[in-house]
Amino acid sequence: MAGRKERQRKLARERHVRQQARRAQQARRAQIATAIGVVCVVIVGLGVGGFFVFRSGNTKATAASASATPTASPVATHCTYTSKPPAARNVGMPPTTPDSTASYQATIATNRGDVVIDLLNSKATCTVNSFVYLAAKKYFNNTKCHRLTTSSPLYVLQCGDPTGTGSGGPGYKFADENLAGATYPQGTVAMANSGANTNGSQFFLVYKNSTLSPNYTPFGTIVSGLGVIQAVAKKGSDNSNGAGDGHPKEPVVIESVTIKKT
Q1: Closest Cα to residue 224, out of 252, 249, 205?
Q2: pLDDT value at 236 more than 50
């Protein structure tokens, strides 16, 4: 009788052990499943969240752009010019206090004819201040316009580098201006640069509507002589920078730049 009870107790202990083992295994499986579920939720959440934030940000920006009323930037009364050597021609730095109330007109005399530009002093005061200063110092005199682009979306003649290489500058740099909503239709005059706030002396003349990101300070409008540039563009470029981009086949030399207050 005692032996039978002992076997029953032994069987009961074994059943208990098996039950405990099954419960432990089920618990481990549940933990693993929970962990996988959490990881999946996090991954999906990040993916959906990223998409939502991206979409939401775009929608917000689009809505803001559509509903916002453009406001004019305040006219600059102080300009900062920072040294950036070397200078293609050493003419010093412009005054830091611009004549912000003046109206300026520039005449670029070239070997192909004159190009007359109304300078946007009220919108790009420090840019115009620099351009007027460089013109007075004869910085642009006898310099070649080194680049012509003739293929979509860019139709420009680029000038303002006395070295004629596309890398020369006045020995200083200054900040961008007038970029809010900037576009580049035919007749625009804008600064060339090598990145944000790296303006110097190089500028480009848009002879046909062009599509560019608003990263280049518009500071003038061609009021006379656009045909001079368009005639040069018809002759094409030497494609030295790629198809439709290079030195103009018909060289353009700036003989002088004169400034008139109007």
Answers
A1: 205
A2: yes
